[in-house]
Design goal:
The chain is an alpha+beta fold and about 120 residues long. It contains five helices and four strands, in the order H-H-H-H-E-E-E-E-H. A four-stranded antiparallel beta sheet has the order 1-4-2-3.
Length: about 120
């Protein structure tokens, strides 16, 4: 009630929701250090997408790491059968592999074109 008298109703709702769902942990969000940290993390995560794609047959027999493009596209992990693996330098793709990519949102179309084109070095 105290907040609602001094500010707009929707701002009072936000403040109340923070207290309701965070309990005493609300202080961690309201301190300036945590706000800047949380803002940085949220902004960074908002600029990235984690995508799961099947490895196209054109990429079978090629180095998985060849799909990486600077800071725009990064192959994070691979699932082969029932095993999940982190990407190592000489890992070669096989039919049926499932890849996870960390991709900047402005590079998603570029990743799709690379996967469709099958450009990359043969092993």
């Amino acid at each position: 009630m105290l907040l609602r008298r001094r500010i707009a109703p929707w701002l009072a709702l936000v403040a109340t929701a923070i207290l309701l769902f965070m309990g005493t942990a609300y202080q961690d969000l309201l301190w300036p250090f945590q706000i800047s940290y949380l803002g940085s993390v949220a902004g960074g995560l908002g600029a990235l997408a984690l995508l799961e794609r099947a490895l196209p047959p054109a990429w079978a027999g090629r180095r998985i790491q060849a799909l990486d493009m600077d800071e725009r596209i990064r192959v994070v992990a691979l699932r082969r059968g029932s095993q999940s693996k982190l990407i190592v330098r000489d890992l070669v793709g096989q039919e049926g592999d499932i890849l996870w990519f960390a991709v900047r949102k402005d590079a998603i179309d570029e990743l799709e074109r690379r996967l469709a084109g099958g450009e990359g070095e043969r092993r």
